[in-house]
Amino acid sequence: MTELSLLHGFSAPTAPLTDVRFFRPPLPSGYVRRPRLCEQLAVGLSGRLLLLSAPAGFGKSSLAIEFCESLPDEWRSLWLGLSVRDNDPGRFLERLLNGLRRCFPGLGAEAFGLLKLRQRHQPFAFEEWLDGLLDELALRLDPAKPVLLVLDDYHLAQGAVLDRCLQFFLNHLPDGLLLLVTSRQRPDWHLARLRLSRQLLELHEQDLRLTTEETRELLLSQGTQLSSEILTSLLQRSEGWVAGLRLWLLTAAETGGAEGFAHAPHGAEGLIRDYLLEEVIECQPAEVQAFLYETACQERFCAELCDALREAHDSAAILAHLQAHQVFLVPLDEQGQWFRYHHLFSDLLRARSAPGLELPSASLHLRACRWFNAQGLLDEAIEQALLAGQPDVAANLVQNLSEEQLLAEQNVAMLLRWKMDLPDSLLASTPRLVVLYSWALALACQLDAAEELAAQLGRFLPAPSALQQQSLLAQWLAVSGVIARGRGESQRAQQYCAEALAGLPLERYGQRLMCLSTLANLAIVQGDLWRARGLNREALELAQRVGNPLFEALAHYDRARTLQARGEVLRALDEVRQGLDRLRGLPPQRYYAMRARLTLYEGVLLTLRLQPENARVCLRAGIAEARACRDISLLIGYGVLASLEGRSGRVAEAFAQLAEAERLMHIWDVPPVYYLAIITLVKCDLWLMQGQVELADAWLARLAETYNGEQAAAAPEFHPQLPLHIELQRAALERIQGQLPEAERRLRALSLRAQTTGGQLLGVVAQVQLTLLLRVNGREREAQQQLGSSLQAAAGGGLLPFEELLEHQPDWVREQLLLRPECPLREALLAVLPGPVSESPSLSHSAPVEALSSREMAVLQLIAQGCSNQEVSDHLFISLHTVKTHARHINSKLGVGRRTQAVARAKDLGLLS
């Protein structure tokens, strides 16, 4: 071998440079650098131990190489790649001493001689030997020129005696020496004291998984570009496993170009299979291999379930072994009770039959079914019965699921998945199954199928007794009322739900609560918010009597919607948080529609409080859980998220959110009556932002004809005040079109209509829009009076209606607010206003300013004259979207956040007179 830098930073080696025992390998071709992890490791340079512990193929050694290459100039590194032969402590210590002597010539001459004289079959005082060597090493080390000692693949050499030697080594490590260890299994060292004293920095599998960006970079380094859909699937399947991704790339390339890259990786195919077999499975003892194959059929498992599957009692010990040896075991809780296997690892285990394992998978699933049922985990017991190919067993178990449990959890995705595997004859075999699946289909908005199945209840009439007959009829009325509400048939829905409440037995409290919720929603549509409030109170009292937290959450959700419609935003937010508090004890790994709805609605209310970033967090979390439950409440989340993106200038992202919502509705086969108007209304708002006035005009006219015409349709369930929102959009359109008298008349009529129907929040929006209209037209006294009325009506805490006024008239609003007595609303509005222009740090004369283009100067001059965006658009013959783009560029170049600040800054710089 030629003269290479085998040992970073070491000069005057005592061993020949051809000695490969201390060779630090180069980074592999196409390696994706991971500076974020190197930065984390660099934090531990002041400690004693850096530990990289993860399963095979997670890039531990490559990261260690990269870290060595990125060390500060004063650091030196020594690389020891270990093998199985090094599990002899004497051989290991001899290698360690040889390595150290490359840096410190003559180190440990006496210790080296003692090692050479030892006999392997005779006891040797390793700790005493290390103590002397470390004392001598401490005299040679210079803390100003520290050394990083890397032990790569420690798991190959690990043993009880060597663990004790290294524990002693760590405990007495001299200053100027740091240990970095890579291992597939966690060393059996006492690390708690090191961790407590901040002397240990440890990276696990979760840390080493490739991020989305790192995965994309890896693909690009191999000349591969994938669609976002395939990339998402790839990330989900690979779970950031570096070796799995590289092996998949090789396999995909061999199978032929684009076609090979169109499928996500699978652990039972090609190179990934061979790697896992050779590097992981076949390295395990026979009893552990059998355990892996027997438990792989389960999506999640614990020691007790594994014992039931295997009819054994040693599963806890084997799971501990798998954890210690990092065998692709993924924990699912903080208590270390539930686990699953890495997706690609379980693929391989399920695709192969274990040597000597005779029990078929169906029998294993049936054993799991019995165990889950005994634990009261009914949904998982049903899943296992279906996987075992026993639909009759599954149907019997489904009948044990009460309507109350179904209506409380509303996880219809699970029930519909079962329905696909159950024969239709079984679904309609008992009244209980008919009622259960009628509710499931109704909640999933499969209205025709729900109505058809509910009609099957007629086959069980007359019932054996008058009481059973009344109960069965009342249950049909309840589900039919919800179906009618979904169709927009308000009168039928109201009639059916009222009759169901009169006939339902008290023990059918779940169905009673669904009827109360439906009637409250219809009351909001009709503008009778006092009646809605009374129905909400009745529902909450019922839910509290039965003590079901999910039903209490539903009642809090309905109350919050009523309060928000009345403009009491802060009370609504408190109501939502009370509902979420009732759900704190629910298992986090399961999905609940009510938790999704409350989380989404918290995002809606935070948007009304002008807290967009916090709102986005809630909306995205709510959308994720609603998707898992197949709950169409996610429409709320996508709509509000799209509006937030639009107001932030990210119109393309806003339309993407709406497109995803529409795509899900198509996939779930949801009738357009549920979602089309909601999505179209948000699109109209975005079109107005872009200046696409004609498009918005056409669609707003259609919406108005449908929901505000002579034969107006009922507003959809998730947007009960849709007609009022349409009128607001039409007023905004008229303002943009310059039809100011028409806009003023519409806003005044809307304000009055909202007040008479109890929709105070939308009334505030109309009043604030009217204030802005009057102010722009120079009607100062009227604008001041209108602002006063708006503030009085908005005492419930809604700030969003004031957003446009705050943006376009901040100084005037501040002036008016300071003239009024202190109150929470006044202080909240002052807090979100930009600071006075003269106090803005962005107006510093020393701040460099990028030159404005001639078009930007023209826009700025018109802004300085008090022109609105639309007036600027009309003067310069450019679209409204282009005006807003120029305005953002102006603000960015001048280092300000508002148009008034931009004008002041430009005057400060002499750009405007």
Automatic annotation (TrEMBL):
Protein's GO biological process: regulation of DNA-templated transcription
Q: Which Pfam families match?
A: GerE (PF00196), TPR_MalT (PF17874), WHD_MalT (PF25873)
Molecular function via GO: DNA binding
Q: Which InterPro entries match?
A: AAA+_ATPase, P-loop_NTPase, Sig_transdc_resp-reg_C-effctor, TPR-like_helical_dom_sf, TPR_MalT, Tscrpt_reg_LuxR_C, WH-like_DNA-bd_sf, WHD_MalT
Alphabetical keyword list: Coiled coil, DNA-binding, Transcription, Transcription regulation
Family matches, as PROSITE patterns: HTH_LUXR_1, HTH_LUXR_2
- Stretches assigned to the HTH luxR-type domain: 845-910
Answer whether the UniProt record assigns the keyword Transcription regulation to this protein: yes
- On the tree of life, the source organism's domain of life is Bacteria
Q: Which residues form a coiled coil?
A: 726-753
Q: What is this protein called?
A: LuxR family transcriptional regulator
Which organism does this sequence originate in?
Answer: Pseudomonas taeanensis MS-3
